[in-house]
């Protein structure tokens, strides 16, 4: 009986060792699977980051073009404002010299105030 009593603790010890090995194997597999998921996520995030960077570069280039175009337009507005000021000065001088009133109606320009709704009747008056 002492032999069979000694086998029981040895059997338990062996079963525990087998169970521990199986648990360790499952743990390693789970860890490997988690690592592979993280590697996949890193690849996906790198791809998203590259796409976002390309989008930012495209938008930056477009912004630069629009900014340059706006600078040209601002220069044109300043030049036209100066010409208008000069023309108004000549008209005022002409009024003083000739005595004829020179009222020039303002021509509405929807492009100068794009935030305002466009009235087609005003545009039609401009084209007459």
From TrEMBL:
Residues 10-73 form the BZIP domain. It is found in: Nucleus. Residues 1-31 are annotated as: Disordered. One of its GO terms (cellular component) is nucleus. Its main location: nucleus. Keywords: DNA-binding, Nucleus, Transcription, Transcription regulation. It comes from Rhynchospora tenuis. InterPro entries: bZIP (IPR004827), bZIP_plant_GBF1 (IPR045314), bZIP_sf (IPR046347). One of its GO terms (biological process) is positive regulation of DNA-templated transcription. This is BZIP domain-containing protein. Pfam families: bZIP_1. GO terms for molecular function: DNA-binding transcription factor activity; protein heterodimerization activity; transcription cis-regulatory region binding.
């Amino acid at each position: 009986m002492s032999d069979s009593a000694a086998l029981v603790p040895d059997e338990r010890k062996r079963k525990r060792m087998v169970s521990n090995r199986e648990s360790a194997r499952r743990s390693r597999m789970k860890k490997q699977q988690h690592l592979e998921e993280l590697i996949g996520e890193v690849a996906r995030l790198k791809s998203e980051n590259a796409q976002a960077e390309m989008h930012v570069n495209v938008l930056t280039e477009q912004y630069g073009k629009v900014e340059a175009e706006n600078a040209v337009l601002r220069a044109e507005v300043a030049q036209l404002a100066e010409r208008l000021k000069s023309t108004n000065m000549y008209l005022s001088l002409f009024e003083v010299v000739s005595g004829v009133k020179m009222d020039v109606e303002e021509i509405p320009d929807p492009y100068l105030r794009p935030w305002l709704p466009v009235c087609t009747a005003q545009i039609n008056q401009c084209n007459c």
